[in-house]
Amino acid sequence: MTALTLLVFAGAWLAVNALHVSQIKLPVAHFDPRIGEVHGLLLKVLGKSSMVVTPMANNVGLNGGIWVLSDPQKQWGDLVLKSRLPEEAISPKHLPEPEHYMKLYSEHPTLATDPLLIFPLNIVACLSPTGEKLTDLIVMRRAPGTTLGQYISEKFAAGIQGRRELYAFFEHLGQVTRQFHNDYGKQHTDFQTSNIMVDKADGDRITFIDLGVMGQPVADNDLLHLQETLQVLSDAFPPASYLELAFHHFEKGYFNKAFEASPQPESQVCEVLPGAEEPQGSPASCGSQSLSPGNTIHVVLHRAHADKLGLSLLSHDGVLIVKNISSGLVELFNSQNPDTQVQAGQRLLEVNGRHGYHQMLAAVTGGIERGDFVHVWSQSQKTWARDGWILQLNEDGFEVEYQGGSLQKTLPFGSPELVKVLALTFANPHEFTA
């Protein structure tokens, strides 16, 4: 393929995936894509030779009709055509949907090519025979799959395995949502189960639809809006904790992704978020490592609630020996530090400054304890405070201080806003006699 051909191909691809704005004058005083002359005009403006028009049932609000446009030859994918009746702008920040889409495109042209999103391909202003505005047509790809609400219903019916799959999906959804916010700096603004599509035929691929109010000022944010939607649905999927835990997994994925994108301390070789259970933005896995003159290995891991460590230990004359490494944070550390490995046969010398057998075992296998160093998620600053310290545990949860001791708060047990710092020291087998 020549360079010229490549350029032509790239230009054509960009043109297909750009937003096209146009205007047509109808021969009749109302829009219906099934009327012969109107149908012909629509074919011309969309650049199609033929299409089948099928009305959709969910014609609500200011919509003057919604139709599916299909290719009888199956050469192009289904499109959705929405007729949006004229309306006045509430304010410069609350524009009518067609104008808002055009504004979004001028600010973020990549919206039209982002595979995560369904963004308009065409916006067509329709005028009456006398030149009056009748409606705006918004044409976009039809999203594959089913709504998140239907997906939840199917996983609920599948029992325990379905629940596991649902929670894994929600964690991934949290990561995808955070990436969307990072990419565009805007909220979806109508982030609910009916506007999140899941394509089971493509590995549960996620698509966000209905971006007509994206970035407009609202009282809540996408996380709260989704949480409220799940609360409304909870009666249909008892007990209430079923969807509460789903949202908890969403938060873990969302805030893990936030942490992943944040600057890392220079003293750390690596620090990533495990795919296991992590709290709101929780910093997880991996950590720092160094070798001392005595050939001991120092590893710092960040363990969110319910994260799997993946470290099996055995006792030999009161000494903790590494038996094997399985899937978890330690394995992730090894994968990112090929020159410094935690391996079977090494001796565990210290955990968070604790040296005794029982103390080290409790620190590794237990949860957050008094005196532990932790990372604390700051809701106000939307970042992790890395100097947290557990003051005490009470019936309400953990009392933690952070930001140099200037701030304190109480967080519930299992909170996704806390991540335990695990500092472990290992000695290689030749450094001790078993």
Describe this structure as you would to a colleague.
- The protein has 9 helices and 19 strands.
- With about 425 residues, it is of the alpha+beta class.
- Mean pLDDT is about 85; it is low at about 1-15 and about 260-295.
- The protein has helices at about 5-15, 35-45, 95-105, 150-155, 160-185, 220-235, 240-260, 330-335, 355-365, and strands at about 20-25, 50-55, 65-70, 80-85, 120-125, 135-140, 145, 195-200, 205-210, 290, 295-305, 310-315, 320-325, 345-350, 375-380, 385-395, 395-400, 405-410, 420-425.
- The longest helix has 26 residues, at about 160-185.
- Strands 10, 11, 14, 15, 16, 17, 18 and 19 form an 8-stranded antiparallel beta sheet that branches. A 6-stranded mixed beta sheet has the order 1-5-6-4-3-2, with helices on both faces. It has a 3-stranded antiparallel beta sheet with strand order 7-8-9.
- A hairpin with a 5-residue loop joins β8 and β9 (about 205-210).
- The chain has 3 domains: about 20-140, Phosphorylase Kinase, domain 1 (2-Layer Sandwich); about 145-260, Orthogonal Bundle (Transferase(Phosphotransferase), domain 1); about 290-430, PDZ domain (Pdz3 Domain, Roll), CATH 2.30.42.10.
